[in-house]
């Protein structure tokens, strides 16, 4: 017989029982902090300080410290905003859409993917908030009664952004916390010290795992998944309308909403993969995050990568087909003009790199996928850069053109935002269970009370092979 | 002794999810109503075994979504056609097509908050204490323990007879709960 098809392999390796799952995952939170964690945390926290320092300087001096010039009034701030919002999308996709599709392999990766979403959206929110210049009047964007009797302009896509992204953050936070409740109860029940018992006792809000609770809990989780699913599609569509409703060549296109969503999922999965590979190595989680999990993510990246590549091709085709000289120029200029270097970085990283995943050998190779995931994130950052900067810098009138050059503060703001992201992420994996224990237990063969012929395909297969 | 610590119920431990499911069915067939089955993860088919109806949470969430959509339309209509009329790019004051994204956002936000808060409400959470927490053994429930608890409020409850009954349906360990 040939080797079993990967889809038939058990979801969780190493003959785990309910007890070993609890033990293995809780120990990461309860045990000693690995030295590697301190080293990485020190690096991340230093970058966070750079971020805070840059923001302080920015607020004190004004956004003139960035490399913005006259046509390019939107520079790295919006590039970074779109980039970070996009990173967040894979978390919601994994936790919501895969949940609704009964993809039970998601259970090992959904928790930290959701955490990644929260932190990425937080990073994203920093950029428009500080780009307004006078951040202390950012409340003008919200419909609060004020002394000028003014209300926001509901026709503006920038305002839609405010609502889309803040709703996205709130719903993701709620979804994440609801998912955490049973695991917080586990930590409460295992707590040895008074302080831990108090903290986790409060956080677990009295959860006692009764089926009368589970039935409301499961429906709430299902509903939150159902509510998050259209959010994945709508948030980035709304972000893309910031561009698409303008009349600028290269922005004014109807393909933007689906194109942005595909790119978001693509880059988000790359980030999940980067983090998962590091986490499973450092914390020895190979049994929970198996190569099978990673391979499935690579397949999703292959698909979304080709969707992104298709969108690049479509943009060119439609520019030509429209017969609009400005539109045609915008695209030819992207590939051959002053920003051609950025364009070709984007194409190589986003279109060529995922093609390696056609081959199972590379799809299952950890070093290959680690490098690929980082290249894809670089490529997706450049995609947003190409869209934002090349369209603005070379618009209708050549007399208005200017080349965008970032300053040190553009760089420190971007690099610093990674500091914020990684600091929060490291604190999360140190203090909260990064894998959902309750959900992993429910996909173990022992949890299947109906025998193999009743369960879903994945469960049936895993109980037979166990 | 019994006066100082009134009995709150009986807790019985089962050794597997399948045993818990069978026990739930037996407890219900014996006529008990104020009981619960505790497990580290939700067990498929347990609602049927315990005779529980589907959670009403969906109705609450649906209602909240409608409320969100309605209030968003009302807010956008009132601010732009009544309280602050301002001609922007020659567009109509009531530009309802442009109101769709914010309306959708409000709908989802209200519904999600209702799902979270509604779940807490139906579960009577947060709560600081419950009789089952008086059992040391019950700590296993969030690890690998499977328990049936029958509360003192049940009309068939009798500490000795209920405990015997639970032993007879396969409980590996039975104890009385007090505060």
Structural commentary:
The complex is a heterodimer of chains A (466) and B (179). Chain A is mainly alpha-helical and 466 residues long. Chain A has helices spanning 18-30, 35-61, 76-100, 110-131, 157-190, 194-203, 211-244, 256-282, 291-322, 325-336, 340-352, 360-363, 366-393, 408-431, 437-442, 457-465. In chain A, helix 5 runs antiparallel to helix 7 (211-244), helix 7 crosses helix 8 and helix 10 packs across helix 11. In chain B, helix 3 runs antiparallel to helix 4. Chain B is elongated and about 80 Å long. The mean pLDDT of chain B is 91. Classes of the chains: A mainly alpha (466), B alpha+beta (179). At the A-B interface, helix 1, helix 5, helix 7 and helix 15 of A face helix 1, strand 2, helix 2, helix 3 and helix 4 of B.
Greatest interface by residues involved: A-B, 67 and 70 residues
**Order of strands in the sheet with most strands of chain B:** 2-3-1-4
Q: Rg of chain B, please? A: 25 Å
- Report the portion of residues of chain B in β strands: 5-15%
Q: Total helix count of chain A?
A: 16
Number of helices of chain B: 5
Q: Look at the structure and give the mean pLDDT of chain B.
A: 91
**Beta strand % of chain A:** under 5%
Describe the biggest sheet of chain A?
A: none
What global shape of chain B is seen?
elongated
Topology diagram in text:
The complex is a heterodimer of chains A (466) and B (179).
Chain A (H helix, E strand, L loop, with lengths): L17 H13 L4 H27 L14 H25 L9 H22 L25 H34 L3 H10 L7 H34 L11 H27 L8 H32 L2 H12 L3 H13 L7 H4 L2 H28 L14 H24 L5 H6 L14 H9 L1
Helix pairs in contact in A: 2-14, 3-4, 3-7, 3-8, 3-13, 4-5, 4-14, 5-6, 5-7, 7-8, 8-9, 8-13, 9-10, 10-11, 11-13
Chain B lengths: L6 E8 L2 H13 L5 E4 L7 H5 L6 H27 L16 H23 L23 E6 L7 H10 L4 E6 L1
Antiparallel strand pairs in B: 1-3, 1-4, 2-3
Question: Key terms for this structure?
Answer:
heterodimer, A: 466 residues, mainly alpha, B: 179 residues, alpha+beta, 5 helices
């Amino acid at each position: 017989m040939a080797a079993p098809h990967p889809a038939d392999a058990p979801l969780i390796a190493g003959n785990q029982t309910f007890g070993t799952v609890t033990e293995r995952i809780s120990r990461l939170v309860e045990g000693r902090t690995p030295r590697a964690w301190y080293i990485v945390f020190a690096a991340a926290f230093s970058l966070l300080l750079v971020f805070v320092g840059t923001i302080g300087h920015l607020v004190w001096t004004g956004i003139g410290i960035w490399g913005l010039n006259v046509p390019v009034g939107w520079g790295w701030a919006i590039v970074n905003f779109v980039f970070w919002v996009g990173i967040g999308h894979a978390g919601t996709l994994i936790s919501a859409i895969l949940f609704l599709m009964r993809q039970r392999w998601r259970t090992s990766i959904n928790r930290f993917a959701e955490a990644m979403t929260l932190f990425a959206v937080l990073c994203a929110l920093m950029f428009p908030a500080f780009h307004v210049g006078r951040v202390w009047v950012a409340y003008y964007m919200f419909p609060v009664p004020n002394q000028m009797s003014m209300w926001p302009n509901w026709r503006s896509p920038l305002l839609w952004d405010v609502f889309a992204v803040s709703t996205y953050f709130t719903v993701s936070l709620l979804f994440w916390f609801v998912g955490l409740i049973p695991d917080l109860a586990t930590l409460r029940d295992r707590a040895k010290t008074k302080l831990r018992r108090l903290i986790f006792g409060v956080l677990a809000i009295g959860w006692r795992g009764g089926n009368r609770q589970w039935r409301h809990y499961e429906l709430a989780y299902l509903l939150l998944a159902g509510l998050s699913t259209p959010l994945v599609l709508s948030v980035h569509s709304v972000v893309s309308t910031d561009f698409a409703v303008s009349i600028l060549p290269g922005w004014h296109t109807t393909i933007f909403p689906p194109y942005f969503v595909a790119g978001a999922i693509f880059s988000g999965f790359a980030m999940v993969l980067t983090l998962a590979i590091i986490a499973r190595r450092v914390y020895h989680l190979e049994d929970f995050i198996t190569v099978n999990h990673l391979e499935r993510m690579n397949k999703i990246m292959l698909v979304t990568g080709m969707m992104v590549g298709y969108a690049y091709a479509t943009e060119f085709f439609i520019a030509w087909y429209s017969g609009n000289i400005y539109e045609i120029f915008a695209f030819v200029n992207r590939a051959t003009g002053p920003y051609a270097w950025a364009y070709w970085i984007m194409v190589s990283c986003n279109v060529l790199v995922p093609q390696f995943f056609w081959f199972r050998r590379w799809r299952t190779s950890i070093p290959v996928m680690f490098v690929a995931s980082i290249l894809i994130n670089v490529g997706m950052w450049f995609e947003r850069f190409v869209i934002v900067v090349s369209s603005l810098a070379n618009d209708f009138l050549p007399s208005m053109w200017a080349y965008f050059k970032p300053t040190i503060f553009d760089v420190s703001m971007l690099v610093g935002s990674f500091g914020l992201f990684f600091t929060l992420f490291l604190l999360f994996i140190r203090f909260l269970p990064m894998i959902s224990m309750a959900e992993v237990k429910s996909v173990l063969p022992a949890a299947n009370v109906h025998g193999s012929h009743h369960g879903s395909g994945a469960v049936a297969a895993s109980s037979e092979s166990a | 002794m019994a006066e100082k610590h009134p009995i709150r119920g009986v807790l019985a431990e089962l050794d597997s999810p399948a045993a818990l499911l069978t026990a739930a069915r037996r407890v219900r067939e014996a006529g008990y109503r104020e009981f619960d089955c505790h497990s580290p993860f939700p067990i498929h088919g347990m609602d049927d075994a315990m005779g529980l109806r589907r959670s009403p949470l969906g109705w609450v969430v649906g209602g909240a979504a409608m409320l969100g959509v309605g209030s968003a339309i009302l807010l956008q209509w009132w601010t732009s056609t009544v309280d602050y009329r301002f001609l922007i790019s020659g567009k109509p004051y009531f530009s309802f097509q442009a109101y769709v994204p914010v309306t959708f956002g409000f709908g989802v936000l209200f519904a999600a908050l209702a799902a979270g808060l509604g779940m807490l409400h139906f579960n009577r959470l947060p709560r600081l204490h419950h009789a089952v927490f008086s059992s040391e053994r019950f700590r296993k429930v969030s690890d690998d323990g499977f328990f049936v608890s029958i509360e003192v409020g049940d009309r068939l409850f009798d500490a000795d007879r209920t405990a015997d009954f639970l032993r007879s349906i396969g409980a590996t360990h039975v104890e009385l709960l007090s505060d």
